[in-house]
Every structure is written in C-alpha cells, then in structure tokens.
Amino acid sequence: MTNSKTLAAASIIALLGATASAVAADPVRNVVLVHGAFADGSGWKPVADILRADGFKVSIVQQPMTSIAEDVAATTRILNMQSGPAVLVGHSYGGAVITEAGNHANVASLVYVAAFAPDSAEVLGKMSAGTPPAAHSIKPTADGYLLVNAGDFPADFAADLPLPMAEFMAISQMPINGKIWGTPMGAPAWKSKPSYAIVTTADRMINPDLQRSMYARAKAKVTELDGSHAIFLSKPQAVADVIKAAAASKK
User: Fold this and answer.
1) 11 HSE (CA, 13 A, CB side)
2) Residues above pLDDT 90, as percent of the chain
3) What is the pTM of this model?
C-alpha cells in the first residue's frame, strides 16, 4: 500500500511539473508599445492591427515626453494593468523609456525598433553626438522643447512613406522636452531581460551604426530592415514579426 501511495504521489508531482513546464513554455500574449520623439501612439496602428489579428492583447502608451521619469511612470502605469507577462516595445526615444520601465516584473522581453538602448548613466544627447545621424533638422522651441523642422520631416524621418502621410506626421508631431537629452539614464532592463532589436539601415534620425553598437552591447537578437526611422509604418509586418519572436522567446 505504501509503495502504491508513493507511486501515486510521484505521478501527481510529475503531472504538476509537466503542467507547470507547459505553462512556462506558452508564448507571451500581451504587447505594450511605446512611441518615440516627434510621434505619438497612433503611429503604432498598423503594427497593433497585425498583432491583434494574431490574438495578442495590445496596449499603447501615450507618454507626455516631458521627462524620462514621467515617461517611465506613464509606461509603468500601463504595465501595471497587464494580466500577465508582456513584451515591451519602444521606438526611437521610446527605447530609452523601455530600458528603464522594462525592469517591471510584468516585462518578459524587450524590443527596440530603431531605438536608443542606453546603459546606466548614459545621456542620449551625448550618445547621438558621438555617432551623429545624417539629419540636422531638430530645432528647439522657445520654451525648450524639440521638434523636427516640418519641411525636412518627410526626408529625414519618413522617406519611405507616401509624401502626404509624411507631411501630415510633420504637422502633427509631438514635441519632446530638450532636457531629456541631458538626463542620465537609470539601470537598463536589457541586462536581465531577453532583447530583440531592429536596425533601420536608411535611418537619418538615429545613426544605424549607433543602433548596431547599442544592440550588440545589449546582446539583442538583431534584425536589419531597409527603411527609414518610420519603419513601424512602412514595414509593419516585419516589425510585428520581430515582436512575435520576442513573445515566443524563453529566458
């Protein structure tokens, strides 16, 4: 009888272990998208539509771009609302935001889309100046915010989009507080979370070589796409495919 009970207990333990392993092996189904400078969350619509059609729950952060701390707080607010683990995705400056916000317990993996991936204490402005982009069209406002000169926006930010779309983005762009470019970054989540990254080879806003060096340091799985800084709009399927790969990744 004792042997019978022992075998039964062992079987239950084995079954529970197998069930736990199966649950752990399930891909992540939540995706949180963070926009970059000079844009807003609506630009993620083509990517979000693809992901939602594939069964993902998508949330989009509309951070104010007033400070890194406030943008991380806005992202954390959305991460707190997730029902389980999530892939955290950042475009451009949004990469700096997810680098800090990605330390949240709900974040399973990170995806950088033509984005900054800074290390602790690094400053975005100095990083960009060290490996400068092709564009020189970012201008300050009277109150210390930054915008891309509207006439240069299509060529510098969105060269592979239809011109009317790029021109609308130029007149609807969201300014970013210039102080952000001089703010030291906090502890990077890429040191402890699996990271994926997209290099945009025709990018004029963040030098592709700077993207490559940051992603190599983060040990990210890199995909290179021929496209502009607005790759999330010009090639949404390719961007969604990288996000889906991150959702299926294992720690």
Assistant:
1) 6
2) 88
3) 0.90
Report the distance separating Cα 145 and Cα 177, nearest Å.
4
**Neighbour order of strands in the sheet with 145-148:** 138-140, 145-148, 176-177
Reported CATH class of domain 28-247: alpha beta
Taking only Cα atoms into account, the Rg of the chain, rounded to an integer number of angstroms, comes to 20
**Contact predicate 115/206, CB 8 Å:** yes
Q: Are the C-beta atoms of residues 114 and 200 closer than 8 Å to each other?
A: yes
- Domain-by-domain residue ranges, the chain? 28-247
Quote the CA–CA distance of 170 and 148 in Å, as a whole number.
8
Relative to beta strand 86-91, strand 107-113 is parallel
Q: For residue 179, count other CB atoms closer than 10 A to its CB.
A: 14
Confirm if 174 and 65 have CB atoms less than 8 A apart: yes
How far apart, in whole angstroms, are the C-alpha atoms of residue 215 and residue 1?
59
Give residue 123's Cα distance to chain centre.
Answer: 18
171: left (phi over 0), alpha (psi -120 to 50) or beta: alpha
CA distance 162 to 187: 39
Q: For 13-33, what is each residue's pLDDT tens digit?
A: 343 343 333 334 568 999 999
Residue indicated by tokens 């009970």: 5
